[in-house]
Design brief:
The chain is α/β, with parallel strands linked by helices. It contains 13 helices and twelve strands. The chain has helices at residues 2-14, 33-45, 71-83, 95-102, 119-132, 178-193, 198-206, 217-225, 278-289, 321-339, 348-351, 359-366, 391-412; strands spanning 24-28, 49-52, 65-69, 88-92, 137-144, 150-156, 164-170, 207-212, 294-302, 306-309, 344-347, 370-376. An eight-stranded mixed β-sheet has the order 5-6-8-7-9-12-10-11, sandwiched between helices. α6 (178-193) packs across α13 and α10 (321-339) packs antiparallel against α13. The structure holds zinc ion. Residues 115-409 form the Peptidase M14 domain. Its cofactor is Zn(2+). It catalyses: Preferential release of a C-terminal lysine or arginine amino acid.
């Protein structure tokens, strides 16, 4: 009896997600290389969690950087920034409060397009929307995650032979919750628009959309059950207790040469080998098997309001640079037209920083010409704690950009 009680209480304790009371998110504006060095050493000593850029190694003079500091080091971090005369602001004063406010939807339904849905809810939704729309949506399994979860893939489009396709994935990085919300939104809009909206109907008649609502399913579950700020996969690494690989550093595109870490404890760990992760391998295998048909690859992340295209592993321009730049420009202007949300766009390397092993570069080099990375809202006011009330406008504006790209692909590929 006592044993049972003890087991139950342990389970109850471990089921409680980690809290972020008193943790702050700082935005720093390093002016020169000495500021950059101070931030890098601070990152090491105070175990800062970098939100943007993805790692302290990528901090540059003249560019802002956002990071989370745990409560016990927050005051020291602030004091050191003052002492070193590094301009900064505190963008989130109490992360726990921001995370509680993030769930600001009053919708009671289990699944909603305007709420953050957990993985079980997303999986039930995808089964249901396929069952309800047999002529338009079908569900298959792309693969299985490290922890054994199915990776469900939706195919959205009117049946036809030799159709060209666009691949869209969400949920690479576990804590970027608005990303899976967009993939769900996209499928809903496709279903509701077919036969009603002539432009979307035309797209669905001519193209298939493969939609992967959550790639990093293990990480996503972990952000719900254990730690909201988790980013990587959940695979076990050799010779260390540090868990996980950055799935967007794990592709065979300049793998681990720049902007990625070979240390398993880092958030941008590139993995033991390219495609070491079951999730990235499943995605790459699918694209390789269908590369003649897949004309566009869109991968959805957050945050920073950017639309990026190859290359990120080098500064050299893509063979199709001019066209990709024009498509990005058109997509961004369609997006901005709705709510005035400002986006920047361009090749990843020059627009943000060099980062090797990304899925967009890999897909492009594999032969998928229209390869883009979205970084959705916002620019750091909420960061990964984007309130649910922003899901709808974020998805509405993003859909306009995706439709712009899809139209270009339909007419030019
Ligand atoms: Zn990301």
């Amino acid at each position: 009896m006592w044993k049972i009680l003890i087991l139950v209480s342990i389970a109850a304790v471990s089921a409680e997600p980690r809290a972020f009371h008193g943790e702050k998110v700082f935005r720093v504006f390093p002016q020169d290389s000495s500021h950059v060095e101070v931030i890098k050493s601070l990152a090491e000593n105070a175990k800062l969690d970098f939100w943007s850029p993805d790692s302290p190694d990528l901090v540059q003079a003249g560019k802002t950087a956002d990071f989370r500091a745990e409560s016990h080091v927050s005051l020291d971090v602030q004091a050191l920034l003052e002492q070193s005369e590094i301009p900064y602001e505190i963008i989130i004063d109490n992360l726990q409060e921001a995370l509680e406010k993030q769930r600001d939807s009053n919708i009671r339904a289990v699944h909603s397009y305007e709420k953050y849905n957990d993985l079980d809810t997303i999986n039930a939704w995808s089964a249901n929307i396929a069952a309800q729309n047999p002529g338009l949506v079908s569900r298959s399994q792309l693969g299985t995650s490290y922890e054994g979860r199915p990776l469900y893939l939706l195919k959205v489009g009117k049946s036809g032979t030799n159709k060209r396709a666009i691949f869209i994935d969400c949920g690479f990085h576990a804590r970027e919750w608005v990303s899976p919300a967009f993939c769900q939104w996209f499928v809903k809009e496709a279903v509701n628009s077919y036969g009603v909206d002539s432009q979307f109907t035309n797209l669905l008649n001519n193209l298939d959309f493969y939609v992967l609502p959550v790639l990093n399913v293990d990480g996503y579950v972990y952000t719900w059950t254990t730690s909201r700020m988790w980013r990587k996969t959940r695979s076990v690494n050799k010779n260390t207790s540090c868990i996980g690989t950055d799935p967007n550093r794990n592709f065979n595109a300049g793998w681990c040469t720049v902007g990625a870490s070979n240390r398993a404890c880092d958030d941008t760990y590139c993995g033991a080998t390219p495609e070491s992760e079951r999730e990235t391998k499943a995605l790459a295998d699918f694209i390789r098997a269908n590369v003649g048909r897949i004309k566009a690859y869109l991968t959805v992340h957050s945050y920073s309001q950017m639309l990026l295209f190859p290359y990120s592993y080098s500064y050299s321009l893509a063979r199709d640079h001019t066209e990709l730049n024009n498509v990005a420009k058109g997509a961004v202007s369609a997006l901005t037209a709705l709510y005035g949300t400002k986006y920047t766009y361009g090749p990843g390397g020059t627009t943000i920083y060099l980062a090797a092993g990304g899925s967009d570069d890999w897909a492009y080099d594999a032969g998928v010409k229209y390869s883009f990375t979205f970084e959705l809202r916002d620019t750091g006011r909420y960061g990964f704690a984007l309130p649910e009330s922003q899901i709808k406008p974020t998805c509405e504006e993003t859909l306009l950009a995706v439709k712009y790209i899809a139209n270009h692909v339909m007419n030019n590929s």
